[in-house]
Design a protein that fits this description.
heterodimer; A: 193 residues; mainly beta; eight-stranded mixed β-sheet; four-stranded mixed β-sheet; 3 helices; 38% strand; globular; disordered N terminus; B: 808 residues; Immunoglobulin-like; Ferric Hydroxamate Uptake Protein, Chain A, domain 1; Maltoporin, Chain A; 3 domains; 22-stranded antiparallel barrel; five-stranded mixed β-sheet; 7 helices; 41 strands; disordered C terminus
Chain lengths: 193, 808
């Protein structure tokens, strides 16, 4: 009744907003490790199906056997049904996005580690010839540690943008020394046998 | 052409110069008079009140005069001032008589109405008008309030701010525009009031609990933005302002035109508009990239006057596009903390100061429509009835992928209907020294809120009703006031099931609290009954000293965000969760104000203490182990903040003095100190302003300088201490250092024809000090702006002066 009364008073401006998923919620990050010599692709997820808060995300431990892998990353919003694929949006704006692999488990362009079970190198480039990180080459050797995967969005509105020194900045001063904002940041436990 | 653009600077506070001889014991009558300008309804200062050739009184700064020991029967008086034609009036004296005299510049008294002027304010109130208000033209709304002791600003990451009075802001501080409570998203730190400062003719600031008239949540104070009175005699008047600013290059244009047409002398119209565009301001070392703004406003008012009342319709629209500094980093705790501790923002080398506004930004619109009727019910009193509708629209754009097509990430819409009826009874004369004034009112509100975007706050609807009464016993030296108010509010929020479950899983709500929770939308209802009572006393000791004190008890129902906030806040990297079943908070407040009003020295000092039972506080959630709770999200690990009731106390002192040791010189000083404590956890509360001191010197050329005699030079210094009382868990980083800011203003006034023009050059932060402010959201990311200069030109015109000018 009260609702009716209010609606009756409401002016024409009351039409409800419904823009199509502009909030870029990410609930799920999937890491697909495809063995270089062929074989079954191993997938590990960080999944928070109820979104922020409530139940914490379930984060798989990455368990691999030593060898070479092609690592591809996938981002989804599972609050939508069917799940919304965000990977393509990142690919479309790849000159504004950078995936960064840090942590004790990682030897790569963004870390200063001398040893670690995962040696990461970028296998894709954007229109400016800079790495993206949706496709990577991984050399896995026995050991354990942590790997943090960060999706950094560095649009022109928020200087500085992605540049050829971005990874050097992370290597020297950490991810938070970089411009832009973090869309996802997940730490996975890693063990390679 | 005499006295065409004269300004009266007469500090006459004594109103009774001579008293008619008391010839018998029946001569105990009093006449309480109020002299106002018929066109503007501004008080007419220093008007003489004469009987035959005997000067009885002069009107004071409020246009008031008081005659005592009058004998019953007719009293013939003449009220006069040089630039108005004298008004002769015969008043029938019996007991206490009240009289309002409207003077017109053309010399006709168009109306004489028995209406008593309002008694002096019982609370510590500051009025900003005229030159003080002009100083802040072209700046944010809150800049006008910054010189009032006890007031500071809560600045957001855009060019706008909200006021803090005695440590309270947002929900606990009311803002009224034309006596209508401003309804908007006022809960977030980055939400500033959507008010065009140009609409104000004066701004009144009530510090401390605001009494029963305005609502139970006026705990910190009330800011009243008063548009000018409508013009009353045939003709037109208006003003135009043009302001340019150097830092945050840009400027503002504003104008107002009031008109009464000859064919319809009872109809009065007003048009107003303003436009303001600023580029991003610069700190001493780098620009605050993207922090520009574009704002415009337009309004129209029509009023119709009859002998027994007045009807008024008005509509105002406010529209702003506010750029948020790209230095903000709130999407991840590590980024936020790294930025908060860094000397300058990441990427500051690439920051620019230009007019373009990119993401992140906010687009805000506010519409206010008012229909008001006032009926004079003769000897019974006055009834005023106001219906208002407000539409507040806020879109917040975050940096996203597909930014061209993505739209806004936070979309708020709040619609408020309000009906406010207030009856003021005519003064009741009790004895020769006492009379009673009072008012009673009923209020009804209906509110509808729609939200779309990232999980944050639900849709809700609310229906509220309130009733109040306040009576004041007015004596010659002493006034007493008592007020009581009751409010009822019912609110129904519609939560998406996932949001409802999030509150349940975070232990903010029990599963059964909202009945059937199986659908996609869960409806949670709540009802609140709140009471407010106030008692006050004011006593004058002679003509100069006065003391006011008030006690109040007020309970405030929680705001929807305090109940239902649910998601990562757009201001801080925290996961914020409301408490749907939180109880109202109850404030017990007391204030004592001592004032001195002499000819060369004026001063006021207040002390206050507020105890708040179950103060609704948004702060870090503490787990059973006594440690802060963190939540792992896909964006990283975030601290959890919740609303909860904590017993707390706010106390402090504020005041100011103005001393004129010579006619050309005025020295001023102000101080504001506030302390706050969370008693339950023996911790300090967040965003409580640090101590603030201000001193100023104003010099005016002596009168013999003829043409520039209305010029002035003002120097002011503001010192703000470092806040040493903080809670690191809620503040994230330590408060910034103390700072000192130097300001100056040079102004002059001139006449062109019969009109007035004023020019001023004003500077702020003239030493280009690098500083951060504890009550600014920017303190986590970047410095405050460096030195700035404004150039201001204002013109005031009035057709009645024109006529007079041509006649003489």
């Amino acid at each position: 009744m009260t609702k009716l009364a209010l609606l009756a008073l409401c002016l024409a401006a009351c039409a409800k907003d419904d823009a199509a998923n502009p909030e870029e919620v990410i609930t799920t990050v999937i890491l697909n490790f495809a063995p270089a010599g062929g074989g079954t692709t191993l997938s590990f997820e960080a999944d928070d199906p109820d979104g922020n808060g409530g139940n914490p995300p379930v984060i798989d431990d990455i368990a691999l056997t030593a060898g070479n892998y092609a690592l591809t990353l996938q981002f989804q919003n599972r609050l939508e049904d069917p799940a919304e694929e965000i990977t393509e949006e990142i690919q479309d704006e790849s000159d504004q996005h950078l995936l960064i692999f840090t942590g004790t488990a990682v030897i790569g362009p963004a870390t200063s580690n001398a040893t670690g079970p995962l040696e990461q190198s970028y296998a894709d480039t954007d229109a400016n010839g800079l790495p993206i990180g949706l496709d990577n080459d991984i050399i896995a050797t026995p050991g354990t540690g942590m790997m943090t995967v960060t999706l950094r969005h560095m649009p022109p509105e928020e200087p500085p943008q992605k540049a050829d020194d971005s990874l050097a900045i992370v290597k020297a001063n950490g991810v938070d020394a970089l411009g832009g904002s973090t869309d996802a940041s997940i730490s996975f436990g890693v063990s390679v046998q | 052409m005499r006295f065409i653009c004269a300004i009266f600077v007469i500090a006459s506070s004594a109103s009774v110069l001579a008293e008619p001889a008391a010839t018998g014991k029946d001569c105990t009558g009093t006449l309480d008079g109020h002299v106002v300008d018929a066109a503007t309804h501004e008080p007419v200062v220093a008007a003489s009140v004469q009987r035959s050739d005997q000067l009885l009184a002069m009107s004071d700064e409020a246009g008031r005069f008081m005659l005592t020991n009058l004998c019953p029967g007719p009293l013939a008086i003449v009220i006069a001032r040089d630039d108005y034609k004298p008004s002769a009036r015969t008043v029938e004296i019996s007991g206490h008589t009240a009289l309002e005299v409207e003077l017109t510049t053309s010399g006709e008294v168009i109306e004489l109405r028995d209406k008593a002027p309002p008694p002096p304010e019982m609370r510590s109130t500051a009025t900003i008008s005229g030159a003080a208000l002009e100083k802040s033209r072209g700046k944010a709304f809150t800049a006008a309030l910054a010189d009032v002791p006890g007031v500071s600003e809560l600045r957001s990451a855009t060019g706008v701010a909200k006021p803090i009075i005695r440590g309270q802001f947002g929900r606990r501080l009311l803002i009224l525009v034309d006596d209508v409570r401003h309804r908007s998203q006022d809960w977030g730190l980055e939400h500033a009031p959507e008010i065009d400062p140009f609409i104000a003719d004066k701004i009144r600031v009530v510090r401390g609990a605001g009494g029963v008239r305005y609502g139970s949540d006026a705990i910190g104070g009330v800011v009243l933005v008063d548009p000018p009175e409508m013009r009353r005699d045939v003709g037109y008047n208006g003003e135009v302002h043009a302001i340019g600013s150097s830092n945050g290059r840009g400027g503002a244009l504003a104008g107002r035109l009031q008109n009464v047409f000859e064919g319809a002398p009872k109809l009065s119209t007003q048009l107003e508009g303003s436009i303001r565009k600023l580029a991003a301001p610069s700190t001493p070392d780098y620009p605050l990239d993207n922090a520009g703004l574009f704002e415009w406003n337009a309004g129209a008012t029509v009023s119709y006057r009859r002998a027994s009342g007045e009807y008024k319709l008005s509509y105002r629209h406010y529209d702003a596009d506010l750029g948020v500094c790209s230095c903000l980093r709130v999407h991840n705790v590590d980024d936020f903390l790294a930025q908060a501790q860094a000397k300058e923002p990441v990427g500051a080398d690439e920051f620019t100061s230009d007019f373009s506004i990119d993401r992140p930004n906010q687009k805000v619109q506010h519409d206010l429509a008012i229909a008001r009727a006032r009926w004079d019910l003769g000897k019974i009193g006055t009834l005023t009835s106001t219906y208002s509708f407000q539409h507040d629209r806020r879109l917040e754009f975050d940096v996203v992928r597909n930014s061209e097509s993505a739209g806004a990430q936070f979309r708020f819409r709040l619609m408020t209907h309000e009906l406010d009826n207030v009856f003021e009874h005519a003064p009741i004369h009790l004895s020769e020294h006492w009379h009673l004034r009072g008012q009673a009112g009923v209020i009804a509100t209906g509110q509808l809120h729609e939200y779309g975007g990232l999980s944050l706050i639900p849709d809700f609807q609310g229906i509220g009703a309130g009733a109040y009464a306040a009576e004041r016993l007015v004596g010659h030296d002493t006034d007493f006031e008592l007020g009581i108010r009751y409010d009822f509010l019912t609110r129904s929020a519609s939560l998406a099931r996932i949001d409802f479950l999030r509150l349940v899983r975070s232990n903010q709500l029990v599963m059964a609290a909202c009945g059937d929770a199986s659908g996609n939308e869960v409806s949670c209802g709540s009802r609140f009954h709140t009471f407010t009572t106030t008692a006050g006393v004011a006593h004058r000791f002679g003509a100069e000293w006065s003391l006011k004190g008030d006690l109040s008890l007020a309970s405030r129902a929680p705001n929807p965000d305090e109940q239902y906030l649910n998601g990562t806040a757009p201001t801080f990297p925290v996961l914020g969760l409301g408490k749907p079943d939180i109880d109202p908070e109850t404030t017990y407040s007391s204030t004592l104000t001592l004032a001195y009003d002499g000819t060369t020295l004026k001063g006021e000092a207040s002390v206050y203490a507020n105890y708040i039972d179950d103060y609704i506080y948004f702060a870090p959630a503490i787990g059973p182990d006594g440690l802060p709770i963190f939540d792992v999200l896909i964006q990283g690990t975030f601290p959890r903040f919740v609303t909860r009731g904590v017993d707390s106390v706010f106390y402090g002192t504020d005041g100011g003095i103005a001393w004129s040791p010579a006619p050309q010189l005025e020295l001023g000083a102000q101080a504001s100190l506030v302390r706050a404590k969370n008693l339950d956890e023996d911790a300090f509360l967040v965003f409580v302003p640090p101590d603030r001191y201000r001193a100023s010197v104003t010099w005016r050329p002596p009168d013999r300088w003829r043409s520039p005699r209305k010029s002035f030079l003002n120097l002011s210094g503001t010192y703000v201490t470092k806040q040493t009382r903080f809670d690191l868990a809620a503040d994230f980083v330590k408060p910034p250092d103390a700072y000192f800011l130097l300001g100056a203003e040079l102004g002059t006034e001139t006449c062109f024809g019969a009109h007035t023009a004023r020019f001023a050059l004003q500077g702020a932060n003239l030493t280009n000090t690098r500083y951060r402010d504890y009550t600014s959201l920017m303190r986590y990311f970047a410095d405050e702006p460096g030195w700035q200069v404004w150039l201001r030109m204002s013109a005031f015109f009035d057709s009645s002066r024109n006529k007079k000018g041509s006649r003489s």
